Amino acid sequence: MRKPNKYLNIKTKIDGITFDSKKEAKRYQDLKFMLRARKISNLITQPKFKFEINGKPLKTKDKGARQVTYTADFQYDMEGITIVEDVKSPATAKLSTFRIKKALFETIFDKELTLV
Predict the structure, then answer these.
(1) How far is CA 38 from its chain centroid?
(2) DSSP for residue 33
(3) Which domain holds residue 85?
(4) Which whole-number Å values give the CA distances from 104 to 22, 58, 96, 110, in the listed order?
(5) The whole model's pTM is what?
(6) Which of 2, 45, 88, 116 suits a disulfide with 92, CB 3.0-4.6 Å?
(7) 61: which DSSP letter?
(8) Is residue 88, in this structure, part of any structural domain at all?
């Protein structure tokens, strides 16, 4: 028997893309509608951002020394502005680990991370 997801999310697949929750999948459908209506452009699902400071990759201190990255849920352009979104439940958005990632993202990329 499978162990339930930590946050009780149900993975949902649309257009061959697996989303971590029904809420995230619904947001994708909304964004697709906005794309067809030409309210947004350049929709990217699960864009990955590499954290760098002064041009140097931010790396973990473990043996593998992997580069620290952040994967958002969506990125798109609206009215000439690039928007990066993350779909979170209110409980998940309050977690200190996510708040740290959000602060790092906003500081390093000088861009607001929009929570949906």
Answers:
(1) 22
(2) H
(3) 42-115
(4) 27, 11, 12, 9
(5) 0.84
(6) 88
(7) S
(8) yes
